[in-house]
Model the fold of this input.
Amino acid sequence: MTVDSEETTRERNERISLRIVGVCFLALSVYIAYESVSDLMNRKAPEHSIPGIILACVSLVVMPILSLAKKDVGKKLGSAAEVCA
Done:
């Protein structure tokens, strides 16, 4: 948090982070759309994805922990938006 003590630096870092996340989500959505249309056009049946199943299981454990940590940080910063999220 000491790195982001200046408001202008913090806002700049937040904008950069949001852009990176946005680009990643956009790339993921393009990939999923391409694969979906490709599979439909080729009449390919869905397959099991062991990495996908593992990722889903890990997410079920990790996401609640991250949510609690995020709320804790929000309380410490006095951010109503983070506490309610």
Observations:
- The first helix runs from residue 7 to 41.
- The mean pLDDT is 83.
- Residues 48-85 form one domain.
